[in-house]
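User: Could you check the structure of this?
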Amino acid sequence: MPAFARSLQFRKSIMSPNDTIETHTISVLVDNEPGVLARVIGLFSGRGYNIESLTVAEVDPAGKRSRITLVTSGTRMIIEQIKNQLDRLVPVHRVSDLTDEGAFVERELALVKVVGTGDTRIEALRICDIFRARAVDSTLESFVFEVTGSTEKVNAFIGLMQPLGLTDVSRTGVAAIARGEEGMLTSDGSPVLDDSRVDNAVHAAGS
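Assistant: Sure, the predicted structure tokens are below.
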């Protein structure tokens, strides 16, 4: 057996299950104030943790709270370190590991620009239909498609568009939420939106 093969076999034999690289989706409920996102990113960069996807938006205007959803990868020990470090940040109200806590729903949106004419244009529309994407902008030589779904679905769509004239991609990152009755916002009884914000949202939806 070659030396490199023996070395690889030895490393596999001494590798514990905890050394397996895992991908986790983590939601963090934080105060909506300046500098919070920088603290979270600084925690990751300062310790060499990896961020594969990150989204943040205000989800509780009445309580001035935002939700950060991030996808990270590492060994089980690293994942636990990440959660513990996040939980120690002052503006953090709750850290939820959606991957560990049970079933959850996740979606990502991407805008994909494809430039082409003739048969490639027809093929791009056909793939768009198969993936249940939609064309949100078009010219005589280009399309901008909107595709929504799992990260795997978005990756597959982009991969199929590459030989058809893919020129630009913009992705939101993963948004995720746990299935079931429990939620991150209502555990303390505070409202998610006050009446005035609900009225404004209803008015905006009808305009």
